[in-house]
């Protein structure tokens, strides 16, 4: 396996970023046809995911990211098994790039929902820097590995811990994201929040699934501000979920709010069903902090304009789906883990 220097990695990743930001014919064809294999991967959503990753792979951010690991070039040589999720397009590509950047080999068990896209992206990377050709392999089953990074549900994590508990590992479970409103938001801020809620139809762990709102909050302005997202109801799978959850609430007599394409329901849980946004009232800033700290293990990121003393990543409205290279899933530094194998 070829060992690349940090400057070579940065040049290659930067060139990959440029390719993803301006997709070539082969990648564009995939972007426009993935919905035939996975109805959630619409051209608009897939292009958004591809270009967001491309934009993150800029030279300044790559330098900031990799310069945090001074021992990067002295490590590597291990085989790292990757079990990738497939809930949104290219959701596992950051793990793959981390393994390659750390000088290790990636043994990739791709999700059937997302295998074509990630294979095309890595083909593009090899075209840019052929030395990466022997740094990864796609497999149907993980065998002969030194470490594992596995992403799945709370249920699958129990199996992962059983099978991979004897090697160094990162095992990720379900997480959701939350937004905090004060009642002073502008229409533009709330419209931007719509991206955090509706991008990828709400299927990602960085999608907002719950709102924290002050006591007495009036949702009329919120609904008015997100009205531009109404076309999401034209997607048959999303609309099926909306209709199903609405019928459940109506049959059960559950109190809820409805704007025709999104249901709001008061609920203390973090994870809401598709096409539903849970909300919870809070009394003051201290109550917000207490709640977030209690739920920190279940939160991926927080969308807010408020400064808080919490361990989770906090982003501004509209930015939850644009993590930087150092915004690691679950707050676990993947590069540090890989560099110290």
Automatic annotation (TrEMBL):
Q: Which UniProt keywords apply?
A: NADP
InterPro entries (UniProt xref)? Ald_DH/histidinol_DH, CoA_reduct_LuxC
A single Gene Ontology MF term assigned here is: acyl-CoA dehydrogenase activity
Q: Which SUPFAM superfamilies match?
A: ALDH-like
Q: Which GO terms describe its biological process?
A: bioluminescence
* Keyword match Ribosomal protein: no
Q: What is this protein called?
A: Acyl-CoA reductase
State the species of origin.
Mucilaginibacter mali
